[in-house]
Amino acid sequence: MEFFNMITKAISDILITSGFAKITVGQAIMLGISCILMYLAIGKKFEPLLLLPIAFGMMLANLPLSFLSSHEKGGLVYYLYQGVKLGIYPPLIFLGVGAMTDFGPLIARPSSLFLGAAAQFGIYFAFMVALLIGFTPQEAASIGIIGGADGPTAIFLTTKLAPHLLGAIAIAAYSYMALIPLIQPPIMRLLTTKEERMVKMEQLREVSKLEKIVFPIAVTIIVSLLLPSVAPLIGMLMLGNLFRECGVVERLSDTAQNALINIITIFLGLSVGATATADRFLNPKTLAIIFLGLLAFIFATVGGVVFGKIMYKLSGGKINPLIGSAGVSAVPMAARVSQVVGQKENPSNFLLMHAMGPNVAGVIGSAVAAGVLLTLFK
Questions:
Q1: pLDDT for res 135
Q2: Which of 178, 198, 272, 337 has the fewest CB atoms below 10 angstroms from its CB?
Q3: Nearest-CA neighbor of 164 among 135, 191, 195, 187?
Q4: Measured distance CA(30)–CA(296) in Å, rounded
Q5: What is the mean pLDDT of the chain?
Q6: Based on the number of CB atoms within 10 Å of its own CB, is 184 exposed (0-12), middle (13-18) or buried (19 or more)?
Q7: How many whole angstroms separate alpha carbon 84 and alpha carbon 71?
Q8: pLDDT in tens, 138-153
């Protein structure tokens, strides 16, 4: 009997001191949300490279007594989070993106810059709406940048202006990026005519190696002098592209495209997800952020397509306005959506390379928009 009592007491003590006894309703809800996000990442393949580590980080942060949230000093994730807090991870992600991206279509058709700029309309629209419903200018700027469809830029700006909103903004940004193939096509079809969607564009001119080398250097100098606050993002993006195009540092280019960006993606996703604790995430602000993020994506697409229609008119019908939707900076997903929608109307239409110009311009445009907001509201 005494042995039985000892066993019973031991089990009781373990249960009392375990996380099962300490878990709150909020934490249980957050664990459920994290499982849903993991299902979307694994089962539906919605932006899995970042959504999966973000969801797992959220799960770890909401396990009672685990000490794995990003704001609990001494834990593993706390130290990983310093790379986010200090602004290290987003520029390194940009280094890899630059190394993977061909800027040739943008150089071949510089007018694509206007489409990338027009697609940033969603950022400023969501920013104004967020101000009107009571968010501070810093919070509104962080919410608005979701419309840039650029996760690293959203994280970079939010950590500097509204770090308490980081979890909600990062999850909204990457979730909507994953949903671009569902969000954009109805808007594109609504705003364009069948005749416009069927336009076949002329083949882009061949871009010389010298142009591809000079471009990242020139953009770094011009943008960094204009907006010093965004130099880390633009500088790393262009350095990665210079690695790709110069032809003398293949090993560095390969590392930036593969090993480095994969490692940073794990650290970034895990630590950002770990900011989404129940006390920070489960509040009315989160619901408002999710709604405003969708609004930002919708109006970013509207801005790009509407300006695409303007260019269609100005070019005498030579520009397919569908490529304007690729002005959001989700590379290369948004460009692929332009291709798919255009090819449904005309199977012989190939818009992918034409859409990559606005797509790359959108990456630069969202970083510039972040620099403007950071300069105004930091």
A1: 97
A2: 198
A3: 135
A4: 25
A5: 92
A6: buried
A7: 12
A8: 999 999 999 998 899 9
What is the per-residue pLDDT for 47?
82
Strand, helix or coil for residue 72: coil
Neighbouring residues of 351: CB distance < 8 A, sequence distance ≥ 6? 201, 320, 322, 323, 338, 339, 342, 343
Residue 209 CA: distances (Å) to CA of 111, 212, 268, 353, 359: 20, 5, 34, 18, 21
Instruction: Record the tokens describing residue 105, joined without a space.
Output: 């279509």
- The predicted-structure confidence for 35-50, as pLDDT tens digits, reads as follows 999 999 999 888 899 8
Q: What is the mean pLDDT of residues 312-322?
A: 95
- Report residue 186 as tokens: 């109805």
Residue-level length of the chain: 378
Mind giving me the DSSP string for 157-193? HHHHH-GGGHHHHHHHHHHHHHTHHHHHHHHHHHHS-
Alpha-carbon distance of 191 to 347, in angstroms, equals 20
Q: Which residues contact 100 (CB under 8 A, 6 or more apart)?
A: 240, 244, 257, 261
